[in-house]
């Protein structure tokens, strides 16, 4: 089963992640628990944890199918409740005879908000920077596989410095305790651990995961355990610059000027030449076919991230320009100069982004 779980989680903007997976016993290494973190447009990230009933190759196979489906749906940037709806439909198509629980959350580091939808999964616990731990009130929802159920989503604050803990029921339920007793013990454990580092310093994320697992006793390993911890760093408002550009010939020049001013404000003038060149190329491509205003956003974190959005769904394709071509070199330059780059299709068009190192 470990081969079906991500060996390394992706690097996401404004959030740090840590995970743990423990099988029920040394002799039972095949189960249906999973976790995932999926980067989304706009520097957001989807946080997913799920649990297929049973301990068998069948459970693991169903888990793999649901995890892959969730990744595909995340790529479409659907709202969390719609992701769960389509997962439920997929389970019906597969003829799955085992139900699964799943919690799907989307964190936005710019707005410092998180949107959560739930399909019968234990609720997440949020550890605030000051040391207060709370069990989040999220819709309970029906498990995946029931069919014909509407899922709901709730939007909550995700303050900087807080830690969200997603987990499967093996962490909180056993022969020795019911699930709600276990959830309360988890909440108390998180609060007690936070007291060790003081109100202004959250506990180190990896150490926090280890402390959580230490709450398990000898009789508490009846089920697999998957754990996903997310530390919200967020992105401060003064580290974000956002503009609308009319789809006209003057847009690339205006984009260059706006980017230059933002970089000067952030003391990142050393990036001006590269950023202006790449922003100009990407905006030029965007306004060529756009019918609505193009968006330009710069984000300053440990890297500089530039995002250009338009209303054209076709994704750009990297190709080698011929010597006689007048254009076609924009993405080639982005690919050569940027630390990373990519493009994501949205329901309203697409976003092309790139990142540059600074400092």
Blueprint (SSEs and pairs):
Layout: E1 15-22, E2 33-39, E3 45-52, H1 57-75, H2 80-94, E4 100-108, E5 113-119, E6 125-127, E7 133-135, E8 153-157, E9 163-167, H3 179-195, H4 205-213, E10 225-232, E11 240-245, H5 251-265, H6 272-289, E12 294-300, E13 303-310, H7 330-337, E14 340-346, E15 349-357
Antiparallel strand pairs: 1-10, 2-3, 3-4, 4-5, 5-8, 6-7, 6-9, 9-10, 11-12, 12-13, 13-15, 14-15
Helix pairs in contact: 1-2, 5-6, 6-7
Side by side, the strands of the main sheet go: 1-10-9-6-7
Sequence of secondary-structure elements: EEEHHEEEEEEHHEEHHEEHEE
CATH names the topology of the largest domain as Phosphatase 2c, domain 1
Radius of gyration based on Cα positions: 22 Å
The domain tally reads 2
| Distance N to C terminus | 41 Å
So, CATH architecture of the largest domain? Answer: 4-Layer Sandwich
CATH class value of the largest domain: Alpha Beta
Largest pleated sheet: 5 strands, antiparallel
Count the DSSP helices.
Answer: 7
Q: What fraction strand? A: 25-35%
Q: What quaternary form is this? A: single chain
Number of strands: 15
Average residue pLDDT: 89
Spans of at least 5 consecutive residues with low confidence: 323-327
- Shape label: globular
Output the CATH homologous superfamily of the largest domain: PPM-type phosphatase domain
Q: How would you explain this protein's 3D organization?
A:
- With 359 residues, the protein is an alpha+beta fold.
- It folds into two domains: 2-232, PPM-type phosphatase domain (Phosphatase 2c, domain 1), CATH 3.60.40; 237-357, Histidine kinase-like ATPase, C-terminal domain (Heat Shock Protein 90).
- The chain contains seven helices and 15 strands.
- The protein has helices at residues 57-75, 80-94, 179-195, 205-213, 251-265, 272-289, 330-337; strands at residues 15-22, 33-39, 45-52, 100-108, 113-119, 125-127, 133-135, 153-157, 163-167, 225-232, 240-245, 294-300, 303-310, 340-346, 349-357.
- Strands 1-10-9-6-7 form a five-stranded antiparallel sheet, with helices on one face. A five-stranded antiparallel sheet has the order 2-3-4-5-8, covered by helices on one side.
- β4 (100-108) and β5 (113-119) form a beta hairpin.
- α6 (272-289) runs antiparallel to α7.
- The longest helix is centred in the first third of the chain and has 19 residues, at 57-75.
- Residues 323-327 have low confidence and may be disordered.
């Amino acid at each position: 089963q470990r081969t079906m779980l991500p060996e390394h989680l992706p690097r996401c903007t404004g959030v740090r992640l840590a995970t743990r997976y423990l099988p029920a016993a040394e002799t039972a290494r095949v189960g249906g628990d999973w976790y995932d973190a999926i980067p989304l447009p706009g520097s957001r990230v989807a946080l997913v944890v799920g649990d297929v009933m049973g301990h068998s190759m069948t459970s693991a196979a169903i888990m793999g199918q649901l995890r892959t489906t969730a990744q595909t749906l995340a790529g479409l940037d659907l709202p969390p409740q719609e992701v769960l709806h389509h997962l439920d439909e997929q389970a019906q198509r597969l003829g799955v005879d085992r139900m699964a629980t799943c919690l799907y959350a989307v964190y936005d580091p710019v707005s410092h908000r998180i949107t959560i939808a739930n399909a019968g999964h234990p609720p997440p616990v949020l550890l605030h920077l000051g040391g207060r731990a709370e069990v989040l009130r999220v819709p309970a929802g029906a498990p995946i596989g029931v069919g014909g159920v509407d899922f709901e989503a709730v939007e909550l604050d995700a303050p900087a410095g807080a830690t969200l803990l997603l987990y499967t029921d093996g962490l909180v339920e056993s022969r020795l305790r019911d699930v709600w007793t276990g959830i309360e013990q988890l909440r108390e454990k998180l609060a007690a651990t936070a007291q060790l580092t003081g109100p202004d310093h959250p506990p180190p994320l990896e150490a926090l995961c280890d402390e959580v697992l230490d709450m398990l006793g000898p009789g508490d390993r009846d089920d697999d355990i998957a754990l996903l911890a997310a530390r919200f760093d967020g992105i401060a408002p003064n580290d974000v610059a956002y503009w609308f550009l009319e789809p006209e010939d003057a847009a690339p020049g205006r984009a260059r000027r706006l980017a230059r001013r933002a970089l000067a404000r952030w003391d990142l003038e050393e990036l001006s030449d590269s950023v202006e060149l790449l922003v100009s190329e990407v905006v030029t491509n965007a306004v060529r076919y756009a019918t609505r205003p193009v968006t330009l956003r710069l984000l300053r974190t440990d890297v500089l991230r530039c995002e250009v959005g338009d209303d054209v769904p076709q994704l750009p394709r990297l190709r080698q320009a011929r010597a006689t071509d007048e254009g076609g070199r924009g993405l080639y330059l982005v690919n050569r100069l940027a630390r990373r780059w990519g493009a994501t299709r949205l329901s309203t068009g697409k976003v092309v982004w790139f990142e540059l190192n600074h400092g």
